[in-house]
Amino acid sequence: MQSNHQHSGETPLDTEHRPLGGSAWCFFHTNLPVQLNKQKDHPTYLRQLAPEIINDIPVDPVKVYTDGSRNDSDCTGSGIYIKTHNQELKIQRRNPDFCSVFRSELIAIDEGLDSLSSFSCSNEIWILTDNRSSIQLLANWHRVRDNIGMNILNKLKSLSVSYRMHLQWIPSHVNIQGNEIADALAKAGADDASVPSASLTYLELFSRAKSRNKTIWIIPLVHHWHQGSRPGDCLSIDCNRHDQTTLTSFLSGHIRSLTFTDNSKCFEICPKCTAEQAAPDHILACMGLSKQDLISNPLLTLDFFKVHRLMDLI
């Protein structure tokens, strides 16, 4: 089939896909600008491209706009907007947490195909999505192995007996009304407080575990020596490397006078009071300071060490 969508700078992909049995009737059609890159192409170009795409779609066929969304809390949803010349249907769906936007888009396509039974369809059905990857996946139908992809292909195959099926890419956020409605429905589905019952895939379980581990690692530990300016820092002060290393080591308890006798820590006698071992806590107490003073004002503490001639000890 020769596509009607032609303009400079791109070559549309418009192919007929037939089932494995080798039948000659058309399975479904995909239309995807091969050279388009949403991340690199200027928004003005995408806005100019949108009317060209929409104008090539006949008025009478059923149009199924689909979209997937994922919010900052890793909650996901799908949106479906189905429109004919005298009917419309809006569907929002809450998907499992950590579900990818790609899978949410496939879920939207799958549910959109299910919902077509309530429409009096013409001889054509257009699935309109702003997700290129979903069209590319279905275009390579002979490589599809996941359940939802197989469900979509089976429904497309069943519908193609009576209707001419089209999968059409459209640019997002360029004021295409159907796409904007589907996008709003998908976001509303992601924000829905209901708990989805669908199971997660392996990749989604991996994403959830990765997110949980990331949260654990980026939160600073409660130990006092982790109260620096960044997670993992002990102290960050404006002084030379030697003094900064000295203060950091002192805060962790590893000073020069530390030795081990019978698996017990031993320190030299404090030169200031000559009464007790010069453990880090004792040194601070002997100068009338605390660990919090060292953390909040390390330069002042450093001056105390130098005035009392304790730098060689620590």
UniProtKB/TrEMBL annotation:
CDD domains: Rnase_HI_RT_non_LTR. InterPro entries: RNase_H-like, RNaseH-like_sf, RNaseH_domain, RNaseH_sf. GO terms for molecular function: nucleic acid binding; RNA-DNA hybrid ribonuclease activity. Signal peptide: none annotated. Residues 58-191 form the RNase H type-1 domain. PANTHER family: OS05G0353850 PROTEIN (PTHR47723), POLYNUCLEOTIDYL TRANSFERASE, RIBONUCLEASE H-LIKE SUPERFAMILY PROTEIN (PTHR47723:SF19). This is RNase H type-1 domain-containing protein. It comes from Araneus ventricosus.
